[in-house]
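Researcher: Structure prediction, please.
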Amino acid sequence: MRPLDKKIYLASKSPRRRELLRQVGIDFELLSLRSDPGRGIDVSEDVLASEPAAAYVERVAREKGAFAWNVLHLRRMPLRPVLSADTTVTIDGEILGKPATPNEAVAMLERLSGRTHQVLTSVALHYIDVAEQVTQVSHVRFATLSPSTIKAYCATSEPYDKAGGYGIQGLAALFIEHIEGSHSGIMGLPVFETAQLLKKAGITSL
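Model: Predicted structure follows.
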């Protein structure tokens, strides 16, 4: 079933995902999920024991979308496609989350320095007769970073709300020697793959 209008719900608080949807002309309404432990968490982003990065990011994206779809019904909101996503960074088979302290951020960047890591973003779409998901994987090589560069970067606000402790759309663009994959996927929403998903629910911008 096609939606009555061309609007979707975005189940994400990420400003990068909002920017990317606006960039390609997708009209959306935010449907934020709670992530503050003090107020309760709607979808846990904890990694399960021995959970591979791909399984982790796919599970979290899928659970965010399913929870948001149920919220629409509970609140009796207009039914529109729900888009959800999750991004993670992995190196040596280990998931790097969002650093909580400068020391954690420094340790992550020291580990990424001079090496190639993977960024996985999984995007899920929920609608009346659509439940689809796609995961995009990019390979990112960092230049070798000096201790002073790492310290200066970690003194900014950039590392602390981003998986892996860096944002490609900010100062960390200076660190990246090579990308194989999707620049927008590394930001948090692979535009091409997302557009293909939205088409299945009758949403296009062109």
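Model: Residues 7-199 form a domain with the Maf protein fold (CATH 3.90.950.10).
Researcher: Thanks, that helps.
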